[in-house]
Amino acid sequence: MSTDLIDRARSAVQDRAELPGMSLMEHLEELRNRLLWSIGYLAIGFVIAYIYRAPLLTIIQKPLLDIGLKMTMTHPTDALNFVLKTSVVCGAIIASPFILYQVWLFISPGMYANEKKYVFPFMTSTVGLFLAGVWFGYRYVLPGAMVVLIKDFGKDFSHMITIEDYTGFFLAVILGLGITFELPILIFFLALFGIVDARFLLKHFRYAILAIFLVAAIICPTPDPIGMCLFATPMLALYFIGVFVAFIVHPTRRKKKEMPA
Fold it and tell me: Which residue, 110, 94, 92, is CA-closest to 31?
């Protein structure tokens, strides 16, 4: 399978080498401009998140509050670090549509003209899938993890959940699932560049199952197999969505649609 993937990737690079490109200095200048715009959008998102830091604190603590606990300060700077860290992360989420558009503008010179029409589906799907992963983690995974880890496994112990430990755990689950839900976007680009197609993905489905459960075991916050399956199930569904996306956007499929009858 790895040899086949390498050959497909090499072929895709060779095909796109024929596109009119930019010089190295032009690429670096373009990268600098996109980074500056992205940093500006991130700064704006940070300011917005900082302004609403009080409701953010309540939202983040809710899984703990629901089981009768609060975060505990163990250092004078813990509260400040919490505000800054969450403002950066939430600011990045707020600014993500604009940052993603800068990413698209940077990679678009390496695309054919008929591929650039996917900018709107790319933007809406990327943001929508990430937010869906965040919602799934916040609505189901985090509350379940708090009950299992603290109420069940930790019932015989006194609880002191520090700000640093809880926010790290919270962000790991939320961002981990948000990024995991981007699987169809990864498949979209691999298929768009001709590296994989729907048949290839279905043929190697057993390897995908193994990889998905390995990822689920790594990012799952609870040690039980039910929790791991809770992570893996939506990833399997997203994989099949990716198969459908690959069928639609693969170059061979597009060329057939563009051929005159």
Answer: 110
- pTM, to two decimals: 0.78
- CA dist 116 → 98, 183, 214 (Å): 17, 20, 34
**The tokens 């390498």 sit on which residue?**
6
Structure tokens at 78: 């813990």
Listed as ranges, residues in the chain with pLDDT below 50 are 258-261
Burial of 235-246, coded b for 16+ CB within 10 Å and e otherwise, reads: bbebbebbbebb
Task: Provide the percentage of residues in the chain whose pLDDT is more than 70.
Answer: 82
Distance between CA atoms of residues 213 and 167, nearest Å: 25
pLDDT at 252: 65
pLDDT of residue 261: 44
What is the spatial distance between Cα 92 and Cα 162, in angstroms, rounded to a whole number?
24
